[in-house]
Known about the structure:
Its EC number is 2.1.1.-. By secondary structure, this protein is α/β, with parallel strands linked by helices. The protein has helices spanning 103-106, 162-175, 190-198, 209-221, 236-246, 271-284, 304-314, and strands spanning 5-6, 46-47, 54-63, 69-75, 78-83, 86-91, 111-113, 125-126, 135-140, 143-148, 180-184, 201-206, 229-233, 252-255, 260-262, 268-270, 292-297, 321-330, 337-347. It has 7 helices and 19 strands. It starts with a strand and ends in a 6-residue tail after the last strand. S-adenosylmethionine is lined by residues 158, 185, 187, 205-208, 211, 235-236, 256, 258, 261-263, 267, 269, 298.
Amino acid sequence: MAKPKYKSQRRPSAPSIAKRPRASANGQARPRENSKPPPEPLPERMVWKGARLAERTSMVLETEATADYALLDSGAGRKLERYGDVIVDRPEGQALWLPALPQSTWDQADAIFTGNTEEEGAGRWKFPKGNRGETWPLAFDGVGFHGRFTSFRHVGVFPEQAAHWHAMQTAIRAAKRPVKMLNLFGYTGVASLVGARAGAEVTHVDASKKAIQWARENQLEGGLQDAPIRWICEDAVKFCAREVRRGNTYDIILLDPPAFGRGPKGEVWQFFEHVPLMLDLVRQLQAEKPIMTVLTSYAIRASSFALHELMQEVFAGMAGRIETGELILRQEGGERMLSTSMFSRHIGEGVDV
Ligand SMILES: C[S@@+](CC[C@H](N)C(=O)[O-])C[C@H]1O[C@@H](n2cnc3c(N)ncnc32)[C@H](O)[C@@H]1O
């Protein structure tokens, strides 16, 4: 088993979870207002020694239309989707082509994201058939939760993640032993609910109180109120650093970090700056016989090969394999593929997904 070594020298761009002083309106850093203790320093990056894992690149994991969700059409910078019984028309930068379906089909949308920055909240949505209310019931493979029209054009679920959720629930059920799962940047908790329903003991971490609140509501909606899920509102890096110090480990770790985010105490998350350190922590949180670790990135400047090489570096010397590729949504009718994000995942030895 590879022994990690701390790098003796701090790299010039070593990441920091330190809360940075906010810039004032004129761009000048504000002076410290009180004598709070200095923020916890981040651990150094680690050097991992060991053989490269078996690997698979350029994988495409596809999510097809179901009764719960369908990508109906895409084109001209937009996509038309069905979430449960609600048809949604939203912007989609990857849809460079022309729509396949006639305008009359697009006109059936119940909700259209207008992106009108003059408006706040649900006001950025238009409801041509009348206001539907802020939320509505949704499901993934029998796990209930609810959608919401957010001002960021999201609706509370990233349906292409279903490819990982299916793999994860298959592996949890096949493990036939207690499974501990950590869902970092967990958002509205659908992955946490899917993991818990399959039998895992779940720790869900997100920096946003609102997202945690929504996730808790989803737990009730999914009828999983008795499932063992810990909801933790904290900066994901800080939480992992603490878990490493406590010596806790997990069989499944999911991380879907945004390009940019903030922890509850203003900790800054920058994908390109912090993801290597985050993976060092994730490696230290691996159970003795881990099932899987899934890193997803919607950060456009990244390449799936960049994720792949980082995973190879950090998981060096472990058993199992690294699989890397893209998540796509297959348009209903089976023709077009819409790319949404890239991923790299470690699959434990003997785990069949
Ligand atoms: C699910 S992720 C990314 C979603 C989607 N893949 C994307 O890129 O738009 C977003 C979640 O990360 C959370 N988040 C942002 N910064 C965080 C931080 N420093 N620690 C923990 N969670 C954070 C947000 O609150 C949000 O719920």
